[in-house]
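User: My collaborator and I are trying to settle a disagreement about how two of our proteins should look. Neither of us wants to argue from intuition anymore, so we agreed to look at predicted structures for both before our next call. Could you fold the first one, then the second, and keep them clearly separated?

Assistant: That sounds like a sensible way to settle it. I'll keep them separate. The first protein:
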Amino acid sequence: MNRVRSQYVLGLGLGLKHHHSNDTGNANATASNLPSLQPTPQDNFFLNGLAGQPPQTRSYDFVVSQVEGAPDGVSKLMLVVNGMYPGPTIEVNQGDHIVVNVTNMLEKPHRDSLARSFQNQTIFYDGTAGITECGIPPGQSLVYNFTLGEFSGTTWWHAHSTQYTDCITGALVVHPASPPPVAFPSWDGELVVQLADLYHTFSSVLLASYLSPWGINGTAGDEPVPDAGTLNGLGQWGGNGTYFNFTLEANKTYRLRLVHTGSFASVRFSVDYHTLTVIEADSTLVQPYDVAGVTLAVA
C-alpha cells in the first residue's frame, strides 16, 4: 500500500521482446463472431469508502464469456467477466458474507478462486477444477457463498487453469474491522491499481507449445515471454494502445492498492516525481517506509 500527493497520470511499461506470433488459435471461436471487450468503468478502481460498516451480505453477479479485445492495441481473443478486463472489484469488510453468482458462458468448464480469502469449511470454493471441486459446466452457474473470517488486506480473484492468463481477473479488497495502529499514515482516497503482463497468443496455444517436445520457437523448456504489460487493463505495444489515467486532487494523499494479476513477469511500479510510502505487503501491515518504486512478483 502506498501514498502519493498531487495530480498525475499512471502508465506501465515493460521492456519485453516479441518472441512469438499473434496466432490466437482457438478451435471454439473466431474474432468475427465474438462481442467486443467493453471498457471497465473508472469507478471499478476507486474504492467506495465502505470501511467501518457493520458486517453484511454483499452480492455479485459474474458472467464469464469470450470476447475480442485489444488491451494494448493488438486484437486478441480474451476470456473476461462481465465483458470487461479487469473484472469487477470486490470490496468488502472483514466479517462480511460474500455471495458471488458465477455463470459460465464459455464452451469449456470454468473455475474461479478468491485468492487469499481463507475458505474455512468451504474449501470447495477454492482450488483447481478437478481437485477440490468440478469446474462449472458450459451454460451453468455456481454460487460462491461464504463468510470472511479474520483475513483482511489487498488481494485478487481469478480463474484457474490457464484461463486467468486470458484475462479473467479482478481485485478483492477486504477492509479490517479494527482501526489502524496509532500514528499510522492516513489517506484521503483509495485506488486499485492492477498490474499484469499480457500475451497476444491464447493461453491454450502457449501451453501446448510449452509442453511439446520442441517447445516454444523450437527451444524445449522455454517459458512463454509476455508481449506487453497492462495497468488497469490498458497497455501499449508497437506504438499502439493507450495509458490508464487517474485524475486526482492536488495536496491529497491516496492509498494505492497494488495487485499483480499477471502470469510470468515481475513488474516495477513507480510514480514520476513522487515518493511512495509502503505500509502493507502481502496483506500484512508493515512499519511505513519510503521508496522510489516497488517491484511486484506475480500474485
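The second protein, kept apart from the first:
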Amino acid sequence: MSFKDYDKKTFIADVARDFAARRISKRDFMKKMALAGVGFSAFSAGLLGNQRGFRGNLGLIGTEAMAQDASTTQWLKDVGSKFKGTKIRYTSEATPPTVVLDQIKKEFTEPTGIEVEVEIVPLEQVLAKATQDVQGQLGTYDLYYLDQSWVATFAQDTIDPMQYYKDKPDLAMPGFDWDDFSKPLVEGLAMYDGKMVGIPFDIPIFMLMYRKDILEKHGIAVPTTVDEFTAAIKKITEAEKANGMYGTGLQAKSGHYSLNCDWTQMVWNAGGSIFGADKKFKGNDAAGIEGLALYQEWAKNAPPESLNSTWDGQFQMMASGQCALVQSWDEFFPGLDGKDSKVQGLWMPAKPLIGKDLRPKSEVGFGEVPNRAHQGGSVLGLSKYSKNVDAAWVFMQWACSKDVMTRCTLIGGFAPMRLSSFTDPRVNEKAVVGPGTTRHLEMVKWIIDNDMASEPDMPLWAGFSNNEIPVNLGKLLTGQDFGGDPKKCMDTIAAAIDAAVADAGL
C-alpha cells in the first residue's frame, strides 16, 4: 500500500481502533502497523490487549514520607495558579508511574487549580488516541505516553522539553536539573535526530534474582555466568523437585513476546545477535543455535507451567516457592517482598548473567544492541498541538521532578529515571525487607549504566517478536514440531523473517 493517497496517520489510528474493538486479530494489527512503519518494543507489544501488572505499594500515599515538599507546593501556586480552571489531558497504558500520578494528582491540582484527566487504557488505544490527535492536530491530549519505538514517528509532533525549559524561564521549575536524568536512558529512549522528544518515564529491565536460602542450603555460590547458572539450576532441580521446587522458572508461553525476550537474551549471551550487519536473521547461526539449545536445557529444569506462562506466571512461580533462580524483570522484586508474600526477604538481586563475548555493534543490524539485560522503556512527551501547552508544561515538570519521581518510585516499585532518586534518603530507608522495598535499586542502577540491551529498531520487529519467533519456539519446546532440533526451528524462522524483510525493502 502507498500512503501517498491515504494518510499514514489516519491509517494507523483506524487500524489501532479496529484492534481495540477486536475487529482484527493481534497478528493482523502487527502486520498493518509494520506496513505503516510503526513498531513496538517487545515489552510493550506483549501488553497489547492487556493491562500491565502493578506490584507497588499504594498504601504509602498519605504517609509523612510521601508528603509533597513545601517549596514545590509554593512554586505550583506561584506559577501554576495563573492557569486556574484549565483542564489538561494525558493518556497512557497502566505503567507504574502513571498509576501513581493518577493517585497523587490532587497535590498538583489543589495549589494550581489545573484539573488533570488521566486516561489509563490498553496500549493499542493509547496509540489510536495519540495518532488521531496528531493527525488532525486536534490538541485533545496535552501529553503523550510514547513507547520507545514510537519516538521517531511522533518526533515532529512533540516539543523538545529541554529547549522549552530554556525558552520559558518564567515557567521553569527551579532545580529541575536535566543532568540528573540517567544519560543511558536519555540517549536510549528520548533522543531522535538530535531532538529530545520527551522525558524518560519508565524502564523495566532484566536482572538476576535468587533465593538465598536455597542456594545456601545446597552450598551453591550466586552464579555470575551462564554456565554457573545452568549447573546451579540442575543441582537444585535434582535435589528439590520432589518438594515442588525447580531450579528456575521461565516465561516461555508459545506465541507470546515473553518467550521472545527470554530467547533473545540467550542469543546475546551466546555471543550472537538477532540480525547481522547484512540485515539477515542470525538466530540460526552457531551462536544462535547454542543459545536456544541451552534454553531447552533450562526448560527441563523449570516447572512444567513455564511453557504456558508469560511474566505474570513467572512471577507467581517465584512468589509461590516453585523456583530458586530467575533472570527477568526488575519490577517483580517489590512484589516478592509484599506484606502477604510467602517468600518475603528470601529473594536477592544480582547482576545479569555473563555469557560469551558480546557481538560488536558493527556486526549487527537495525540498531540492535546486544547486552546482558533486556529493557522496555518509554517517555512522556509534550504535544505541540496542545491548547493548554503552558499548563501542561507545568504539570510535566512537576510529574518528572526529583521529588515526584522519587515518590513514584517508592510507591510504584519501578526503576527511577533520575540519578538523585537512587540516593534519596527516603529510597535508602526502604532498602530493607518489606512492602515497598527498594533494596534492589542499587543493582538496577548498575544494570542501566552497564548492561542495558536494545532489540532491533524496525517496524517489522513487533510482528516477528510476537508471531514468527515465539510461535515456532513454542512448537519446539512443546514437541509439536522440529523433533527437538533447534537448528530446524531457527532455519524455519530465518526463512520467514528474511523473506518478510526483503519484501518490505528494508
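Some points you might bring to the call about the second protein. The two ends are 15 Å apart (CA to CA). Residues 206-373+453-504 form a domain with the D-Maltodextrin-Binding Protein; domain 2 fold (CATH 3.40.190.10).
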